[in-house]
Amino acid sequence: MPDPTRRDFLKTSALVGGGLLAAESLALREAALASATPPAMSIARWDEAALANSDLSDVAVKLTQTAIESLGGMGRFVNKGDTVWVKPNIGWNRRPELAANTNPDVVAAVVRMCRDAGAKTVKVGDHPCHPARQAYRNSGIAKAVEEAGGKMVYLDKKRFKEMTIDGQHLKKWPLYVEIIEADLVINVPILKHHGLSKASMAMKNYMGIIGGNRGSWHQNLDACLADITQFMKPRISLLDAVRVLTDHGPQGGDPADVDVRGIVAASTDIVALDALGAELLGHDSQAIGNIGVAAARGLGTPDYRSLDPVEKTIS
Questions:
Q1: What is the CA radius of gyration of the chain?
Q2: Strand, helix or coil at 189?
Q3: Beta-bridge partner residues of 175
Q4: Please, what's the largest Cα pairwise distance for the chain?
Q5: For a FRET experiment, which of 10, 98, 177, 276 has its CA 20 to 30 Å from that of 309?
Q6: Phi, psi (5° rounding) for residue 19?
Q7: Ramachandran class of 182: left when φ > 0, alpha when ψ lies in -120 to 50, beta otherwise
Q8: CATH architecture of 39-314
């Protein structure tokens, strides 16, 4: 929208020139822009030819900023004074180069953008499989978040509380209270292979907010993931595919299994985001069970292209 001085100038010029119709046309264009439906999905890619010679830290930050700005900006989701919980995957005691956890620079960029949008507090935490202090430190996420002005939170087992999920499979389950009480939860998984579910993406990342016997979910994983997704009602999710773990997930450990892709995507439709992730891993979205179950529940579309995503290539 033009600032008042420019708007006044344009209107005055139109009147002086006898162009009242032009001023009315300008007002109509401004109204149309104000009422335009914001995009549901964005995909930011680093120029493939430049990727090999680029600083991946810089790549991760710029891709994250581009993906969120293309979705309408963080201000679309964060209100002034909000408490935001950023939920990366920090499940494993692995360094960033092994792509078992979300890229720390992606997480830090999200934290900074939340703060710039007016968030009062930005908390970051996960329920790791490896010891939390090791995973937080060696993933690089703890340092990155602290430098970005966020607060790392170690999940206290005493603060998981049984809540009513009212899902088709899960009726009640212990969840981490502080996450559920946040004004906004931003789901920020890394894209990676998973030995059981074939892919670990946004819906799978919600397993980091639950307590109890998490292993029991694997007996009916697709239904459980759809249930927790429906309960969480996600407003925005980001998929980190700067580096992708293509095999031996979810914890990896072999650099040979890591592929540098230089992609970050964001969406208000978590099913569509996971469908994109499945494609990037070489799967048809129908091959990932939880995508099909969630789509059948009306939680999103597996046809991410139907959302007409904003796609930008940068370098």
A1: 21
A2: coil
A3: 161, 210
A4: 74
A5: 98
A6: -105, 55
A7: beta
A8: 3-Layer(aba) Sandwich (3.40)
Please name the residues in contact with 300: beta carbons below 8 A apart, sequence gap of 6 or more: 269, 270, 271, 272, 294
Instruction: Work out whether strand 41-46 and strand 310-314 pair parallel, antiparallel, or are unpaired.
Output: parallel
CA dihedral 164, 167, 170, 174 (to 10 degrees): -30
Helices in 235-288 by DSSP H: which ranges? Answer: 270-280
Find the length of the chain.
315
- Cα dist from 310 to 60, 265, 313, whole Å: 18, 10, 10
The packing angle between helices 20-35 and 4-16, to 10°, is 150
Q: What are the pLDDT digits (tens) for 122-145?
A: 999 999 999 999 999 999 999 999
**What's residue 31's pLDDT?**
46
CA atoms within 13 A on the CB side of 22: 12
Q: How far is CA 14 from CA 11, 22, 214, 221, in A?
A: 5, 6, 66, 63
Tokens 């290539």 -> residue: 313
- DSSP alpha helices (H): ranges in the chain? 4-16, 20-35, 48-51, 56-70, 104-116, 132-138, 141-148, 177-180, 202-205, 221-232, 270-280, 289-296
Domain boundaries, the chain: 1-36, 39-314
Residue 188 has pLDDT above 60, yes or no: yes
Contact of 109 with 92, CB cutoff 8 Å = no
Q: Rounded to 5, what percent of the chain is helix, strand, coil?
A: 45, 20, 35
What pLDDT does residue 36 have?
78
